[in-house]
Amino acid sequence: MIFYNSLIKWYLENKRDLPWRKTTNPYHIWLSEIMLQQTRVAQGLPYFLSFVEAFPTVFDLAKAEEEQVLKLWQGLGYYSRARNLHKTAQYIATELNGVFPDNYKDLLQLKGVGDYTAAAIASFSYNEAVPVVDGNVFRVLSRYFDMDTDIAQATAKKEFAALAFELMPKDNPAIFNQAIMEFGALQCVPKNPDCAVCVFNESCAALQKKKVELLPVKSKKVKVRNRYFNYIMVSDADEKTLVQKRTAKGIWYNLYEFPLIETLQEEDFEFVSNAVATNSFFANPVISMQACNEKSIVHKLSHQHLHIKFWKLNVKGELVNGITKEELKQYPFPIVIHNFIESE
User: Fold this and answer.
1) Distance between CA atoms of 180 and 305, rounded to whole angstroms?
2) pLDDT confidence of residue 168
3) Cα separation of 76 and 228, whole Å?
4) Which reaction does it catalyse (predicted)?
5) First-to-last C-alpha distance (Å) of the chain
6) Which tens digit of pLDDT belongs to each residue from 282-305?
7) 41 vs 21, 23, 49, 169, 344, CA distance in Å?
């Protein structure tokens, strides 16, 4: 009870003013939760507002073209979230008459909705007593109770969820879930938390034992793969260019890009120009080629670091299927390519 009372008092005094906290509408809460997976609130908020404006209801989102959804999502990353969001909206609109499931168990059946998101919607929209367990919750509970359970283990979530459920007031689970996540996001942060001003500085076990920086325990290390992308921006006599859709499963699925030459390492002008000559991107004779960036742009994803170079090619005649600069800006691109286009 001491933990709960102190937590709620802190939350009511320090919580951020966020639009999805002013509603129990499951559509808005679902949107916000999907957007905030792997994304900071400051980054996700403008996207949430744009989506709600473009698609006020789940029916509006369901009726949209996937490319429109991906274009609005551009820059938020983890694009499978946007594709799943769109498919789930179509399912809810057509199969469920626009009505979201009203309990945790049924919410879990929706595409792209896992334990955490289902718990958030169930508690925030329907007041179901089910705890949310995300990185913030792992951190707060492991430090406060000095829990050295490895959170990378499959059983950890069940253990932390059981503890959170025990601490949660069953008549108002929503405020508890909001409060513990907000506390982890603003106060009990991963590195260098300001424990001197923490409401729990007299009762936090990790602080008493000088273990704050050691918790939570997480053993699994992500192996990062390096990839080397050479994007060929072709320009014909009418200043039209070529793009292609990424149709292979993996990063940036269904987004657009310039013709790509992927290499095993960073390559120079001679190598790339020879590779262009042996590829069949276009039939037009090449007039000139130049590097747009001498040094690779390193674009970091969760499991991959992409080393990206852009090359500009001028060719004779007109390109087959060439598009204008204005048309180019209508396509959904990975943010690194979008930024390059905007800088041109």
Assistant:
1) 33
2) 96
3) 22
4) Hydrolyzes free adenine bases from 7,8-dihydro-8-oxoguanine:adenine mismatched double-stranded DNA, leaving an apurinic site
5) 59
6) 999 999 999 999 899 999 998 999
7) 13, 17, 12, 26, 30
Mean pLDDT in residue range 126-133: 97
Confidence (pLDDT) at 38: 87
The average pLDDT across 128-132 equals 98
pLDDT of 294-336, one tens digit each? 899 999 998 999 999 999 999 999 999 999 999 999 999 999 9
- Any alpha helices (H) in the chain, and if so which ranges? 2-14, 26-35, 41-54, 58-63, 66-73, 80-95, 104-107, 115-126, 135-144, 156-167, 173-186, 205-208, 269-278, 325-328, 335-343
Residues annotated as catalytic are: 33
Domains by residue range for the chain, with CATH? 2-214 (1.10.340.30), 225-343 (3.90.79.10)
**Given the structure tokens 């590195």, which residue do they identify?**
191
The single-letter code of the amino acid at 160 is F
- The b-or-e profile of 308-333 (16+ CB within 10 A means b, else e) is bbbbbbbbeeebeebeeeeebeebbb
Distance CA 163, CA 146 (A): 13
Tens of pLDDT, residues 201-222:
999 999 999 999 999 999 877 7
Torsion over CA: 153, 300, 36, 62 (sign) = negative
